Structure formats: C-alpha cells, structure tokens
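seq:
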Amino acid sequence: MSERTTAGARAGLVADTALALLAERGMRGLTHRAVDEKAGLPQGSTSNVARTRQALLELAVRRLADREERVLALHELPDPRGGADALLDALALTVHRALTHHHELTLARYELALEATRRPELRAHFDAAGARFRDRLTALVTAMGSTSPARHALSLASWADGLLFSCVAGSYHAQVPSVTDIRTDLRELLDGMLGTAGLRRQSEE
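struct:
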C-alpha cells in the first residue's frame, strides 16, 4: 500500500468517524480527541489529517456528500422516457433506503447544515457539496417534462427532506413509511407538479 493510499484511507476513516460522532453526540461531541478515540487511532492522528476544527468539518461535509451520493444514486435512476412506473419504483426505494439503513447520515447532515448557518466558511463547502444533488434533481424533473424545473426540483427535495426529518428526528421518528406508501406519496406529488396526464403518457410511451 502506497503512502498516498494510506493517507487517503486514514482521511476516510477520520471523516466517517466524524460523521458517526455527529450523529451520536451532536456537534459538541465532535472533537479531534473524540475522533481518535472512537476510530482507535493514536492520539494526534486526526489533527494530522485535519488540523483545525474548520478543516475537520469540511472533511466531514465532503465525505457526507460522497456517501449520500452513493445512497441516493440519482445518476442510476431509470430514464424517465422509459416510463414513470419504473422511475417511481426506484425513487421510492431510494427514499426508503435513506430512511432505514442510512439515518445516521441524515442526522449528521442536519448537524452540519445547522453549523453551516453559523459558519459562512463552512456554508460555502456545504452548498458546493449539495449543488451536485440539485443539478441532478433538476435534470431529472426536466426529463420528466417539467415546465418549471428549478421550482419543481425544490418542491421534490423539500418533500424528501421533510419526510426524512420527520421520520428520523421529528415527531414521526418511531414510524417508517413503507415503500408502497412512499411511492404513493411520490405519485401524488409528481401528479400535482407535472399533471396526471403527463405521468400517464410517460407510462404508456
């Protein structure tokens, strides 16, 4: 294993541990020493990867974006031109996967999002990381026939964020909707945005 690979693996371990600490203990629980201890690293290892708290937060934001990109896998969704049904199935499974198997990432994202409102220098990194999702979501609703892609992408993202918050940290934290229920919600939402006729036409083409 090369020195560069070793350094990359160490940075990945530090970033993943930082995200786990954010989900488990919140922002106050994220310290360089805590990362070292939880990751089983020699004291000072995290400081060698990210010397300041700002650098550690930026590392966590980048790792969060990479991991959420793999979870959401928007680039792997079926082409809307192949029909709405397959796309709705895939979107529902994606949201359900985020709710059931990756709620730790969601909690960490909330912690980082709130911290970014207080740290302009972190805000820039957080927004840059999120831009890839906005762009792909905008492209998706455009392909689905949206006449207002930016607004519809915001509506779809807001619905997903609201559901995730409610079922991970909000008043519905003890409940997880089924894939079928999520699919129904998505269908109703997209019907309202794109028009029932448009979705039906895509399913029939």
